[in-house]
């Protein structure tokens, strides 16, 4: 489970919530995601969004503004792989096909010199997301690649050292 603190703007007596996702040069957000107030949770006075979210879909307006709104049978996941020290990470969504994917980067320092991590928000009707990841830089014993499976309950399973879904399927056949 990933919790992101929701920020709000008040205009003419109405409250609008948004999330700053990712981080580019000098701390600027990579993406602004406007959020329906129905999806905002409050705990000890702090308003936040918790991923994965059931019954929520990311849509894009005509002008390209991203909005997370309630929608039956849709689920939205937060997918992220941290980079190694002074390295980069890369993600490839393997399942589900045809999902709505909003990519973002997170610079680990003001100019990204200490690493640039990649992530994505994935909206689909599926109840799980499978992604392949690679990372470079100083890993200090951490794996350089693998496959991660996230389900709607927030549980993540990672298999390190496997680069392709076909390898994972062959491995499961050999084990079963």
Structural class: mainly beta
Strand composition percent: over 45%
Net shape: globular
Poorly predicted parts = none
Distance between the termini: 29 Å
How many strand elements? 14
Number of domains: 1
Mind summarizing the main beta sheet? Answer: 7 strands, mixed
Determine the number of helices (DSSP H or I, runs of at least 4 residues).
1
Q: Give the SSE order as H and E letters.
A: EEEEEEEEEEEEEEH
Report the C-alpha radius of gyration, rounded: 17 Å
Average residue-wise pLDDT: 91
Amount of helix: under 10%
Mind sketching the topology for me?
Elements: E1 2-5, E2 7-11, E3 14-21, E4 31-35, E5 41-43, E6 46-51, E7 53-60, E8 66-81, E9 89-95, E10 100-107, E11 116-124, E12 128-135, E13 145-151, E14 156-160, H1 165-175
Parallel strand pairs: 4-8
Antiparallel strand pairs: 1-6, 2-3, 3-4, 5-6, 7-8, 8-11, 9-12, 10-11, 12-13, 13-14
């Amino acid at each position: 489970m990933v919790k992101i603190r929701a920020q709000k703007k008040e205009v003419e007596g109405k409250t609008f919530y948004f999330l700053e996702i990712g981080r580019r040069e000098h701390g600027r957000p990579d993406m602004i995601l406007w959020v329906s107030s129905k999806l905002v949770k409050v705990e000890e006075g702090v308003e936040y969004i918790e991923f994965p979210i059931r019954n929520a879909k990311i849509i894009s307006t005509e002008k390209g503004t991203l909005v997370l709104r309630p929608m039956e049978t849709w689920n939205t996941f937060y997918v992220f792989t941290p980079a190694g020290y002074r390295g980069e990470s890369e993600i490839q969504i393997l399942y589900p096909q045809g999902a709505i994917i909003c990519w973002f980067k997170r610079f680990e320092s003001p100019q990204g010199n200490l690493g640039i991590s990649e992530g994505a928000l994935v909206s689909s009707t599926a109840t799980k997301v499978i992604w392949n990841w690679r990372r470079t830089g100083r890993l200090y014993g951490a794996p350089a690649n693998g496959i991660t499976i996230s389900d709607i309950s927030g549980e993540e399973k990672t298999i390190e050292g496997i680069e392709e879904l076909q390898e994972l399927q062959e491995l499961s056949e050999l084990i079963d």
